Automatic annotation (TrEMBL):
Organism (species): Mycoplana azooxidifex
Domain of life, per lineage: Bacteria
Protein name, per record: DUF3313 domain-containing protein
One Pfam family named in its UniProt record: DUF3313
Amino acid sequence: MRSNLHFFRRLADEPPRRLLPALAIGMALAATGCTSMPMKESGTLTSYSNLGPAKGKLGKKRRLYVDGRQLAQVKTVRIVPTSFTFIAASKIKSEADRSLVSNVLDRALCIALSDKYRMVPSDQPADLTIRSVVTDIVPTNKTVAGAATVVSVGGGFALPDNVPLVGIPRIPFGLGGLAVEAEAVDRVSTQRAAMMWGRGANFIQDKPRYSEVGDAYGQATKFASDFSRMLITGKEPKMLNISVPSRQRVQSWFGGKPKYPACETFGRAPGVLGAVAGKYGLPPQWTDKKPKPYVTR
């Protein structure tokens, strides 16, 4: 850990044109300082035979299948609220914490998929039905996360503004993680897309938050990004997403009204307040409130 801190202190003193090799080394360090999330078939998918081989990078692993030709004909989509396997649920005692993770996953999916599809409530028929299950979760150590927040927030302000993507690294202990299995089936329950996905937090890219589900909360949105991009494009998503978000996504991120009423089921994003809370390591429970029951009219 001492050597890693020394590396980043030196990095802060380097001129921007010399940062690229150092950033590459930093990303390599991130891969070694992360929680391992093995992928095991849990039996929640309709089929596993369609899935391709496992691929991974920087602590993220996934296996996937996508029928792009059939997805191109989809007009409407519904999301069945995410559930937990018994094993995953047993690792997080608080039902409110589990709901926080499942809800942010579903909300992120609903908002992202609104770019292409018309989203309908889960109790209405649709061309495509999405089911996601949290199959494993590693709780974040709140004590270590609290200490890491003091280091990362306090040290982050000391870095010069012209150093991109670099901050004081997080203490590489007690990091959490998340594993999810999800699929999209058509009206006759034929699997049209599926993904096994796992990612553990790493000490460079993931901000510490004082919550048992602080890391899982962040990983849930990353999974939603991968799965939604696969459904929208009809092909394997790239490991790095550099696309510009749509206007409706930006509006939803700021806590505005979603494009489709069905997404109100999962509440609205905490927006700027949530971003500030995340920077200072505050629990996501403080700003991401339980959604109100959706009422059809």
